[in-house]
Amino acid sequence: MIDRSSRTAEHVAGFRALESARPGGSLFHDPLAWRLLAPRHRPVVGLCRLPGVHAALVRYIDRRWSGGPRASAVVRTALIDRWLASALSGGAHQVVLLGAGFDSRAHRFPGGATWFEVDHPATQATKRRRLGRHARPGVVFAPADLITDDLATVLRAAGLDPSKRTVVIWEGVTNYLSAEAVDATLRALATLCPAGSTVIFTYVDRGVLDGTAQFPGAAEWHAAVRRQGEPWTFGLDPAAVHAYLAARGLRLEEDLSTRAAAALLLPAPRQAAEPTAEFYRVARALVAG
């Protein structure tokens, strides 16, 4: 049971704020990421607009946290933004941010859809306080603990319309849950959302957890989150994801490592200079008809 806002959520917001402050053009622009940082960290991002400071801080972070967590978070944000925009233009009318953390999409994406943010009450309270007047009116905040609360009950009570095509974003969460919790959540989503709805989620390669595969920087990254009290507890075998999802009423459409996403999204010089992870993955599935 987490009784405070997530430290990993804080870090990812920091990575988004840092990318948004990149001189000469960023992969995305998230103006609210800065506001979601703890006040003591905001001046650091402000300094990154000075010549040379941004590049120096990026190099420092990437050396201190090896394995590519910063750049992996950046490319997964850009990739999910792209998939979300496509689903919304294709007729989705609801978006569920599951384990929303300090995700700002509900407050920075164009209007038109109904947004639901589901997260632990502690993290959600911190987020709402930091957003203040910048929170978009009409966003539905549904406090819940995904380990103990029934997701279907939470979303129905929040007003989710089961007849409307929905996009679910489950970013940076599955690797902190149990296999039973991930299974129950995916089955609930396939039941709650109509056919054609999109489920986007991230996961780590199971080989990192069971020792059957070796990836550069994986052990160091895992050790870092373990020290913060948020160890990885769940992973999937990429070769088995299609069958895993099919058994739960979902059809896999795309499944990319953050390194593959970087090859699609980052300019070549950044790909070479900013490490991303082969073991950290982003998947897009549709609710089967």
TrEMBL record:
Belongs to the UPF0677 family. This is S-adenosyl-L-methionine-dependent methyltransferase. The lineage of its organism: Bacteria, Bacillati, Actinomycetota, Actinomycetes, Micromonosporales. The keyword Nucleotidyltransferase does not apply. Its EC number is 2.1.1.-. GO terms for biological process: methylation. Exhibits S-adenosyl-L-methionine-dependent methyltransferase activity. Gene3D superfamilies: Vaccinia Virus protein VP39. NCBIfam families: mthyl_TIGR00027. It is an enzyme of class 2 (transferase). PANTHER family: S-ADENOSYL-L-METHIONINE-DEPENDENT METHYLTRANSFERASE YKTD-RELATED (PTHR43619), S-ADENOSYL-L-METHIONINE-DEPENDENT METHYLTRANSFERASES SUPERFAMILY PROTEIN (PTHR43619:SF2). One of its GO terms (molecular function) is methyltransferase activity. Keywords: Methyltransferase, S-adenosyl-L-methionine, Transferase. InterPro entries: Ppm1/Ppm2/Tcmp, SAM-dependent_MTases_sf, SAM_mthyl_Trfase_ML2640-like.
